[in-house]
Amino acid sequence: MLNRRILRIKAFKTVYSLTENPSMSLKEAQMQLERSCEAARDLYLFLLGLVPALTREASMRIEAARGKFNPTEEEKHPNMKFAGNRVAPLLAEDPDYTKIMSRKKLSWEQYDVLLRHLYDSLRQRGYYAGYMDSGKDSIKEDAGLWKAFFENELEDNEELERILEDLSVWWNDDLGYALTWCCRTMDDLGRGERWNMPPLYMSDVTGKEESDGDFVSRLLRKAFAGYQNYVTRIGEVTPQWDLGRICATDLALIVTGLAEADAFPDIPKKVTINEFVEISKYYSTPESRAFVNGILDKLIDKAL
Question: Rounded to an integer, what distance in angstroms lies between the CA atom of residue 295 and that of residue 302?
Answer without folding.
Answer: 10
